[in-house]
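Let us work through a complete example step by step.
Step 1: write down the sequence.
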Amino acid sequence: MDDVADWLDIPHRAMHAYATATVLLTEEQPDCHLSWVTLAGVGRTATDHGRVNGGTITEDGTMSEPIDTVEVRDFAGDLVSVPGAAGPLQLSPDVWERFKASPTEGTPDIQNIDDAALTAGRAMCAGGRDLSDGDGWLDGVSVLQDEPLFLHRVLATANVYGTVGENRSEPNTAALQAVMFAVDKIGLPYVWGGNGEEAGHDGFDCSGLTTAAYASAGITLMRTAHTQYHSVPLVPADEELQLGDLVFFGDPATKIHHVGIYIGNRQMIDAPTFGQAVQVHNYRKPGDNYAGAGRPTAA
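Step 2: predict the structure and record it as tokens.
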């Protein structure tokens, strides 16, 4: 697991906490099917695994400095933090009081990542919930926080972590950087011709997002979905998609009109259209005009 933690920039002490909570809850509630990737997705989204504001996790699992409520605002500027949330997983007072637990015999401490991870897992598994089911997973994570921004980022992060963990081989660093850039832009609005905040725009259009994501990894893409399709190495139709592949929609002969970035488990991140935010969802649906995939890292 240490190799996977290194590839994904997860502190070893945090990975240990997520894995330990998963093992304990697998024994306690096997039908819940809790995975470490969900806990890690929560941990990164909540406090970057305890590193928010320059903090670290100490050897005994506590924070170098206590983490109070981390202020989170959506891209409309509205405050979406959970009032009174604390610790490395930003657990609410209600969740903590109902489900607090420790893998040791000591008193549970919300500032201890071992205790916080086990408590979060118990909360998500409560009531016989099965996290291997899509609706069950969404309901479980919603117990911790039900803001769409939080849910989409946890879902995307868990997908990325799961893809890398399942492959058990080091991911392409440029592809991983591009994908995590896109994860961090979830919630930004769709803006026609938008290239993101770094370019002085409020949001992205579809190809603006993919262009900026790969630019953050040092790879230059052409600007439109159509030109990206015709300029990156295409993935053979019978080949499995990889993390960071671009997925295209439209007619290659006339107009590729949309592009997203693949994050594993049949999911993509994209800037869909007017009135919608950057989000994560299935990359295929019945009746779509999927045109194939491209792999910028193969160029």
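Step 3: interpret the result. The chain has a mean pLDDT of 95.
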